[in-house]
Amino acid sequence: MKKLFVLLTALLMVTAVFSNVVNPDTYFNATIGEPDTLDVHQAYDTASSEVIFNVYENLVEYDGESMSKFLPRLSTEVPSVDNGYLKDDGKTYVFHIRKGVKFHNGNDLTPSDVEYTFERALLADPSAGPLWMVFEALFGSGTYDVESMVKKYAGVAYKDMFDAKGNILPKYKDTLINFYKDVIDPVVEVKGDDVYIHLAAPFAAFLNIIAQGSSWGAILDKEWSASIGLWDGNPDGWWKYHDWKKEDSPLYAKTNGTGPFMLESWDRTQQRVTLVRNDNYWRTPAKLKKVIIAGIDEWSTRKAMLEKGEADQISTPAEFLSQVEQNPDVFVKRGLSSVSITALSFNWSVKADSKYIGSGKFDGQGIPTNFFEDQNVRLGFAYSFDYQAFIKEVLDGEGYQTPTVLPQGFLGYNDNLPKFKFDLKLATKYFKRAYRGKLWQRGFKMTILYNTGNKARQKSAEILRDNLKKINPKFDCEVKGVQWPTFLDARKNGKMPVYIIGWLADYPDPHNFIFTYYDSNGDYGSYYGANFAEFANKPQPDFGAKSLNKMIEDAAKHPDPSVRQKLYEQIQKFVNKYAVSMPLYQPYGSRVQRKWVKGWVRNPIWPGTNYYPLYKSDK
């Protein structure tokens, strides 16, 4: 026995000496920024969604790297005509809910949890949140929020049903109760172990919308949710839980999913989220015991952590890839396909109390709130950016200029459509036309924000600033970095005159980009303000007297792909003509991690790393 003990001890020592893996059970991801919220129905950014992706589960998931094939997750079947779970000519989806699944608090998953989750999503419906696509799928094109549905149902605007203090007027209480019973409740039904979801019309992308990776498709524990202050599931009073501010949600910093990891902590001061393994997971538990996702904005710090083995994965801007790919201990993958676009967008109606518009006047010390309503201003900006130089020098060639915000590879894309180019003479011509020469004479002053740590967005803002200054010394743009939540709040509240942000597809269809950026009801288009909404709803000669919004709606629902292609090309020519936004680039994806990281699987539609299959080994 003594010899055996000595032998085992020697083997362990050899293993310890020759294993180079640092913290084999813990995975450290050094990224930038932090989550905005952990409420599954409010989260609409990748930092938030990556956490939710690993903590919660959806009814179905993508089959590995495919964006069109699915596997069952909390449902035991993927609904299809062949298996009988897709009925009524594509209008009814039936999900057979898996047994033996437990939430992190020990509660059993039931079909009632699924029904509750979808109904809570529809009723909570946070403004500028992700639920628009669920409304559109369930209730048909042109329906994007619960308030417009209430108005259609009752003939009275939702806001007019409440007094100045936000209390329901007695005469409308039964109206809202009946609205729930007549409109919301019938959409999702429980029949035994099955959940029936009824769509108003066939919507081919429905499974894409709710698949694993979309936070808004994550399933909540009904009992636990009500116990912490979410909607209690009753028709009476549902309006009290509608459109909360993110910090007011009990789910803002709490989670209770069924996924392979559980939230241990979210340290806002350190921008650090810590996840721990769910040892009671219904599938085989994850190999990693702990995952740390840390927002470390300084590139040099992230790089040093990777080199020392303190970080297993780091966020690496394209321009820095060459600094790490020569390291023999580091795995670098360039040129990965993406379903993302980064663009600069204009706010046509900035809030008057914004601190980013200077004086708020045309006096050379600021800009008026409707500054970007002038087409000439937008075109001037669009021709002031050096797109090709930016891609070559800042992105190290890891990107591509697209005509509009529609990425390569999507239906509707046409590389021969007009693209903005860097042309200071042309930009000068437009700026001199703007506001009948007033802009050129007086100049302007404003602030362009970027999220701290995002070097590409910082550099793009600086390039634009410098070129504007070359055109006219009176054109003054301050470039300022802020934390990610601050950036999102400023955008949401209409305070930013322009903003540079990326869009990762919610689902792989052109509508998800064209609607998002160019429809005044879209998640980004809604931030362009009331003046843009008026423009987007105005009949246009380019469209035979149809509005931009109507054209986008028609393109989304047409069943013929060839017709959709032509409609999207027509829409893109129009938005380019009016410079509704400035598409800067479609990035190529990259991955930087230690070579001891094994099991990595990537799907372009996922919001971040799937930690479940990962493990660390030097073999």
TrEMBL record:
Keyword set, alphabetical order: Signal
GO biological process per UniProt: peptide transport
Cellular compartments per GO CC: ATP-binding cassette (ABC) transporter complex; periplasmic space
GO molecular function, one term: peptide transmembrane transporter activity
Domain Solute-binding protein family: from-to ranges: 86-523
Domain of life: Bacteria
Endpoints of the signal sequence: 1-19
PANTHER family referenced in this protein's UniProt entry, alphabetically: ABC TRANSPORTER, PERIPLASMIC OLIGO-PEPTIDE BINDING PROTEIN, PUTATIVE-RELATED, PERIPLASMIC BINDING COMPONENT OF ABC TRANSPORTER
Stated name of the protein: Peptide ABC transporter substrate-binding protein
Source organism (scientific name): Tepiditoga spiralis
